[in-house]
């Protein structure tokens, strides 16, 4: 076998091995999700997941947008299932602390309960104290 064919074969095998599993939650998490937060539910939080990469955007009613890019790690072997927001930075390069969360996918919705920045992972879906300790219910946007 010549070197070019061998290299092509190795790249193909590596690409297959690097692809996300076709079963499990990661493929089901792909794409755009949205929820509304705040007292009047007027602030829109959206996440766009491609592979393990995430773009998170918060759009306020006043027209302000905050965006951060990072990665998610999921562990489906735990109960409840674990999700970590890691390696996030804002558009101006500011690093965002890691956040440990739990999640579940149910009836087309993504439920996420975070523990706060650099805080412990929650053990249940009951709301906690603090702005990041609510249960967020994400849905696919209509358009």
The parts where pLDDT drops under 50 for at least 5 residues are: 1-21
Strand content: over 45%
Total count of helical runs of at least 4 residues: 2
Shape: globular
Biggest beta-sheet profile: 9 strands, antiparallel
Q: Give me the secondary-structure category.
A: mainly beta
Mean pLDDT: 84
- Compute the separation of the termini in Å: 50 Å
Whole-number tally of structural domains:
1
How many β-strand stretches?
9
- Written as H for each helix and E for each strand, in order along the chain, the element string is HHEEEEEEEEE
Q: Helical residue percent?
A: 10-25%
Task: Determine Rg (CA atoms, Å).
Answer: 18 Å
Write up what this structure looks like.
Keywords: Signal. Residues 1-18 form the signal peptide. The structure is a single chain. The protein is mostly beta strands. It has one domain (22-138). The protein has helices at residues 3-18, 26-29, and strands at residues 31-37, 43-50, 53-59, 65-75, 81-90, 95-96, 99-106, 109-117, 135-138. Strands 1, 2, 3, 4, 5, 6, 7, 8 and 9 form a 9-stranded antiparallel beta sheet that branches. β5 (81-90) and β6 (95-96) form a beta hairpin. The protein is globular.
SSE map:
Blueprint (H helix, E strand, L loop, with lengths): L2 H16 L7 H4 L1 E7 L5 E8 L2 E7 L5 E11 L5 E10 L4 E2 L2 E8 L2 E9 L17 E4 L5
Antiparallel strand pairs: 1-2, 2-3, 3-4, 4-5, 5-6, 5-7, 7-8, 8-9
Protein name: TIGR03067 domain-containing protein
Organism: Singulisphaera sp. Ch08
Keywords: Signal
